[in-house]
Amino acid sequence: MSPTPRWWAGAAGTAAGLSLVVVTALWTANEGLSEVARGGWTGAGAAGRLAALWSADLMLLQVVLMARIPLVERAFGQDKLARWHRWTGFTSFQLLLVHIVLATLSYAQGERVVAQFVEFVADYPGMLLATAATAALVLVVVTSVRRARRRLRYESWHLLHLYAYLGVALALPHEIWTGRDFTGSPAARAYWCGLYAAAAGSVLIFRLGMPLWRTARHRLVVDHVVPEAHGLVSVYLRGRRLDRLPVRAGQFFVWRFLDGPGWSRGNPFSLSGPPNGDQLRITVKGLGDGSSRVSTLRAGTKVLIEGPYGRLTAESYRGGPVTMLACGVGITPLLALLWDLPYGHGQATLVYRARRAEEVAFLDEIEWLADQRGVRLVPLIGPRAHQASWLPAEYADYSDAEALREIAPDIAGHDLYLCGPDPWTAAVRTAARAAGVPAAQLHRERFGW
């Protein structure tokens, strides 16, 4: 796979910003700015229209951010896109509420506001569908609040989150039939229809079409399942033309195993070994329903794949010394990278954090890498020193940054690859910055979106 062109990120960001500029320009051309200048309820109505246009634009941008477009995904990474998707979604929803309030107030002239809202819903074209769209978006937003999301299983949250697509689709008729900034200008209609078509096309091509094509082409099936450590199992997969699969060590797929009810719920699992053209390997810790059932997979089970995704690859490696810091199942992409990166003999250090010794996996492979490539293993076993630390209790006398310097005195010159639970990787990242590691040399992939 060729390196990601550096200009991709700038081009994608510019396109997103220009979409808001174009929307604002079309609103201005349709007398929006002059109406705001008049003030009063006329100005409130015009401001409400602009809020609706920005909301719709951001809603479509939200769809595109998670459409798995290779150009966008390779430029930013799924973890960053998922965070932007979240922020964009909340902002879009807040603008939608502003639009509803201002539109109702401006039509009601400040009187009989509730009656005016009921009249909107009952009598205006497309408003019943728009109300249903708003209800769907409310469901998505409420379940995306962190406190609510923690109470939901990942599989349930993911299923509920699909209602965002329903909300986008149901809002379109109202915008086309009654939106002044749609109906008043052929240029505006062409632009908005093109924007909706681009968003829908991105989903159809990259979220549906490409995964189905790759699944059909490579025909992956489970070859065998191997226990690795306490709660960890590895799944070995075979298929056709795996040498043509554009995947790198450190990346992940969304996997759907056709083993019975619940197969449609995908789960992201990283490769735990380098792709070799003959087979793939993932290693899974039994946490939710989807990951727990992996240990029961039978040989020959067919697999649907979506991906590959992720930027935790050799592309970010500058050469020279490298330190990998893994916690728990976070060892999986880092082990694949240890096989893949072109570091010199004795230039790699693996810091492996686990609560118990029986949770440490892949010792045979790590010992082989130590013998053949000089990888230095630093096991950190035991309960945490304290809640905010990434260290075990035996290092309680060290600060987080001091421990890094003790492990690798020249740590500031290393590339650091981190993978583990979000609080743990955040603590390591803070310690690394305190130890003098530049931000450009810190590489991590977040899975707790």
From TrEMBL:
Residues 215-315 form the FAD-binding FR-type domain. GO terms for molecular function: 2 iron, 2 sulfur cluster binding; flavin adenine dinucleotide binding; metal ion binding; oxidoreductase activity. GO terms for cellular component: membrane. The keyword Membrane applies. Its main location: membrane. PROSITE patterns: FAD_FR. Its cofactor is FAD. Keywords: 2Fe-2S, FAD, Flavoprotein, Iron, Iron-sulfur, Membrane, Metal-binding, Oxidoreductase, Transmembrane, Transmembrane helix. It is a multi-pass membrane protein. Pfam families: Ferric_reduct, NAD_binding_1. The chain crosses the membrane at residues 7-27, 47-67, 87-107, 127-145, 157-177, 189-210. It is found in: Membrane. The keyword Nucleus does not apply. Gene3D superfamilies: Nucleotide-binding domain of ferredoxin-NADP reductase (FNR) module, Translation factors. PANTHER family: 1,2-PHENYLACETYL-COA EPOXIDASE, SUBUNIT E (PTHR47354:SF8), NADH OXIDOREDUCTASE HCR (PTHR47354). This is Respiratory burst oxidase-like protein.
